[in-house]
Amino acid sequence: MHTDSIWSETAAWVEAIGAIAAVIGSGWVAASDSRAARRREERAEAEVRRKEEASDLATRNAALNLAILASTQIHDLYVRLQDEAWRGRVARVSASRGLLATQQMLIAFPIQSLGNAPAMVAFSRLPGSLATAAEVYANLEKAVRAVGEGERNAIFEQYNKQMERLDDVAKTQLSDLRTCLQLDAQKTPRPE
Q1: First to last CA, the chain
Q2: Averaged pLDDT of the chain
Q3: What is the pLDDT at residue 95?
Q4: Would you state the pLDDT for residue 143?
Q5: Beta-carbon contacts of residue 55 (< 8 Å; ≥ 6 apart)
Q6: What is the pLDDT of residue 150?
Q7: What residues contact 91, with CB distance under 8 A and at least 6 apart?
Q8: Among candidates 62, 50, 49, which has minimal Cα distance to 181?
Q9: CA atoms within 13 Å, Cβ hemisphere of 105
């Protein structure tokens, strides 16, 4: 009987060790599942952050591209005015029509999406600059047509100075916006 009790004890120990191994194994499997779930969550969070960063970068790039368009149109208007002063006449097509579409895009841009107060302020100045450029040119058209040939040079000179200042202001606004958007320091995030 003593042998039976050793075998019983051994069987009990084997059963106990098996139960302990089963508990440890299920704990290890549960921990493994937990680690895998945590890794999935971390990857999902990283992907969401990457998408948010890419969206933020795209928004800032769109704002900068619109600002470049506005600044370029003001500069082109200044160059056009210089050309017309040289020729001594004003083109029949009003520049304000060409600037209106850009001005509407600037006004419609969701400025709050920039999420940066200095950038929003810098961006908000551009529609006014475009409107001023269009108005300066429209007033030039009226003034030149209202006077005789001999008086046109003085008018062109006066308006040319106004457009030169406006062109300089637009370039400064563009530079300020570019600085506020911090695009030079950013690199485009790449998908992993």
Answers
A1: 69
A2: 81
A3: 64
A4: 82
A5: none
A6: 79
A7: 80, 84
A8: 62
A9: 15
